[in-house]
Design goal:
This protein is α/β, with parallel strands linked by helices.
């Protein structure tokens, strides 16, 4: 569940400094478009062998049709709620392996009350036949507090595994209550809690206490991630809110060309592992 984003890459050659002003002059070679956002999580899930269904918002435009064609070709079921004129598109200008700048064509368009009710109904129906539900909040309006309030209690009863993540500063990580797994970056957690001074264990405990989530993976860019787990999974146990168990796992990559999309891949793979019966350290 989440916003679909079209990622457009314009590959260029650097010619030097333009003659009319001190700015970089580029020659465009080619461009490519990819279907990203919540759709890339669904595509990862399908590529890993599961049956994926994507609930999102779209419009009657070329970007939406392009996304639908890609999803259909890869076997991802999809329901697009017609609630926005077009999909978000992010264009990155690239020379060799270096991204020079990014241009976003994006509006935050939250679901209205009618679309919200429709989305909650579809989500509740689909959850009856699902092993897991993944929420990907990119902050462009598909996931609203109203939708979570309507659907999350029912989904929690129907589904064994719930996971969630946000991307950027517009998503609301604190809205995902009683889920099994959260996979934010350290920066996202600190920004959401407005805490830039406490240790990582302290902010992890604050996040789990606020959301009542079971497990937490905090990613640390090239330093890997830290896994936080409660000492007891029984909510009525004193150990539910006790000091957390934690383990740091290093990154497998010695050198990363591009970090974009790493969190989406982690969210998809770890959710499938959790839904398949793995414990939290095997998921990590």
């Amino acid at each position: 569940v989440g916003d679909v984003i079209i990622d457009r890459y314009v590959h260029c050659d650097a010619l030097g400094v333009a003659s009319e002003s001190p700015m970089l002059s580029l020659a465009q070679r080619d461009e490519r478009r990819y279907v990203g956002g919540a759709a890339i999580v669904a595509r990862h899930v399908a590529a890993l062998g599961a049956h994926a269904f994507l609930l999102t918002a779209g419009g009657d435009d070329e970007r939406t049709r392009f996304a639908s064609e890609v999803l259909e070709a890869e076997g991802v079921g999809c329901h697009l709620i017609p609630s926005r004129p077009t999909l978000v598109e992010k264009t990155r200008f690239v020379v060799d392996d270096t991204k020079l700048f990014k241009v976003d064509q994006a509006q935050v368009l939250p679901l209205d009350s009618i679309a919200e009710r429709r989305a909650a109904t579809i989500l509740s129906q689909q959850s009856k036949i699902a092993d897991a539900v993944i929420f990907c909040d990119f902050g462009y309006g598909m996931i609203t507090n109203g939708l979570l309030g309507r659907a999350l209690p029912t989904v929690r009863q129907n589904v064994r595994t719930l996971s969630a993540d946000v991307s950027g500063g517009k998503g609301n990580l604190l809205g995902f209550r009683n889920v099994d797994l959260l996979c934010p970056t350290e920066r996202e957690v600190r920004t959401m809690l407005h805490d830039f001074e406490s240790g990582l264990s302290s902010i992890a405990w604050q996040l789990l206490e606020h959301t009542q989530a079971r497990h937490l993976f905090v990613t640390l860019d090239k330093r890997g991630m830290v896994v936080f787990e409660r000492r007891s999974q029984q909510r009525n146990s004193p150990d539910w809110s006790a000091r957390l168990k934690s383990e740091q796992l290093p990154s497998f990559a010695d050198h990363a060309i591009d970090r974009l999309g790493c969190g989406d891949a982690l969210l998809a793979a770890s959710t499938l592992a959790l839904a398949s019966g793995s414990d939290v350290m095997q998921c990590a």
